[in-house]
Amino acid sequence: MNKCIVTTSWDDGQQFDEKLSSLLLDFGIKGTFYIAKSWEGRLVNTDLIRELDKNFEIGAHTISHPTLTSIDLRCAFEEIKNSKEWLEELVNHEIEMFSYPKGKYNNEIVKLVERAGFKGARTLDFQIALPKNQFRLGVGSQASNGSPLIRLKASLNSKLSLKSLVDWRVNAKLLFDRMLERGGIWHLWGHSWEIEKNREWKTLEDVLAYVSNIKNVAYLTNGQIIKLIRAHNAVPSDEKVLS
After folding, report:
1. Do the Cβ atoms of 153 and 209 come closer than 8 Å?
2. Residue 142's CATH number
3. 3-state SS assignment for residue 60
């Protein structure tokens, strides 16, 4: 894959998703919103979910946002399966994507997500290439300074400047430049509540403007990337070599 793909994903499902979605629409950036039915004891706004569904992809994020690797597998499966069924009843169509709360997963959890009927899942692993496993789609940059480890991995793997370690805006822009040059997936992940908490809406706006409306860049949802993975995996290996 030598083409640059831009995708974004946003976790939890909070009131500030409305403001976030307006920004994404302004810049023509696609997004996948992974929503849990309740987060820190607060139920999500179902009317907002329906509004988001008109322009963006909706993904599941469990019912109560537990760390799936820390609970019984039976309970984990109920959290995963019920979140899919709840959202599908809400928006009246299939929910194909899942996101592991806090990025925590293992082989058993991956099997449960597949068993529940999802087509793909997003992790918090650093990743800039098309993954082989559709249930391990990774991210490149976080829309926050809250996770230095993700920025460190991005900086080391892409040989970015030291400044990108302390400034997520610099990290996101430099990584995009690298993807534009070499090809790959520029995947920005975050939380609207965190952007609000840190008062970084202008920063996000600057980053979105930087990556928008670029010729030969594909702007996709997480689910559309999963379809690319499935199509690529369906091609015989000898044909891949020739393509």
Report:
1. no
2. 3.20.20.370
3. strand
